[in-house]
Amino acid sequence: MNVVIVDTGCANLASVGFALDRIGAKKTITKDPKKIKKAKRVILPGVGAAPFAMQNLRERELVETLQNLTQPILGICLGMQLLFNFTEEGEVPALGMVHGRVLDLETGNQPSPHMGWNTLENVADDPLLKGVNSGDYAYFVHSYAVPVDHYTLASTTHGDTFSAIIRQDNIFGCQFHPERSGATGARILENFLKASL
Is residue 190 annotated as a catalytic residue, yes or no? Predict the structure, then answer.
């Protein structure tokens, strides 16, 4: 399996790479549009602020490349948020690959940012989630989130209930960090690489 991790310039590429190593996957970390286009699977990681991440993608001339991918692509944390039309973080347009907006997470009396282990809820029947069940834990670190909508495969609650995993056609996203989510995260990565999506 030829899997590419997109070098966004604002992600912990090493931890995603190590997670793929642990499940025996061969990966390439690159910002080369030609290599990204040829990959069988693409992972778009991200940490930090959306305006900086979008600026990096524009400077690396990766926006159109990502928007035109037809193979499965998995956005992780900020990488998932960048797949949507618009984010309230910095009030910036994002990639527009999934219709929707990323909103400031209303945590109520819970700590903000949302940081730590939460259970996945309402897990859908999808090849990405084979062997993953409601009640399984995943590790989150974020202040913005995507509301639950038709693309939601699993949700979680921290103050508000929001999308933990999304899918629209070939486009997938995890608001949490699968590379830091133990056996649950490893299963999702394995499914992403091996399942018929």
Answer: no
10: annotated active-site residue: no
Please list the residues that pair with 141 across neighbouring strands: 115
- From residue 40, how far is each of 4, 108, 138 by CA, in Å? 8, 41, 26
CB of 165 closer than 8 Å to CB of 139: no
- Catalytic residue selected from 91, 142, 179, 190: 179
Q: Are 78 and 44 in contact (CB under 8 A)?
A: no
pTM (two decimals): 0.96
Q: At what angle do helices 182-194 and 13-22 cross, to 10 degrees?
A: 80
Active-site option among 10, 77, 142, 174: 77
The catalytic position among 114, 142, 158, 177 is: 177
Q: How many CA atoms lie within 13 A of 186 on its CB side?
A: 9
pLDDT tens for the 197 residues of the chain, in order: 789 999 988 878 999 999 999 999 999 999 999 999 999 999 999 888 999 999 999 999 999 999 999 999 999 999 999 999 999 999 999 999 999 999 999 999 999 999 999 999 999 999 999 999 999 999 999 999 999 999 999 999 999 999 999 999 999 999 999 999 999 999 999 999 998 88
Q: What structural domains does the chain harbor?
A: 3-194 (3.40.50.880)
Q: Give yes or no: 77 in active site.
A: yes
